[in-house]
Design brief:
Shape: elongated
Low-confidence stretches: none
Distance between the termini: 12 Å
Structural class: mainly alpha
Strand content: under 5%
Mean pLDDT: 88
Radius of gyration: 14 Å
Largest sheet: none
Order of helices and strands: HH
Number of strands: 0
Helix content: over 70%
C-alpha cells in the first residue's frame, strides 16, 4: 500500500518539474525551445493521464 503512494507522489513531483520546465521554455520562446516545449507538453499529458487512471483503479 505504501509503495503505490510513493509512486503517485513521485509522478506528481515529476509533473510539477515538467510544468516548471514548460514555463521556462514558454518564456524563452525560441525555435529550439518550441520543439522541446511540444515534447514537454506531450509528456505532461501522458503523466496526467497516468495519474488519473491509477487513481481510478484504486478503490
Amino acid at each position: 500500500l505504501g509503495k503505490g503512494r510513493s509512486a503517485a507522489d513521485a509522478q506528481k513531483q515529476y509533473l510539477r518539474s515538467l510544468k516548471g520546465l514548460r514555463s521556462i521554455l514558454t518564456r524563452q520562446n525560441t525555435q529550439e525551445s518550441e520543439g522541446k516545449l511540444r515534447k514537454v507538453e506531450e509528456e505532461i499529458k501522458r503523466v496526467e493521464n497516468e495519474i488519473q487512471s491509477s487513481g481510478r483503479n484504486k478503490k
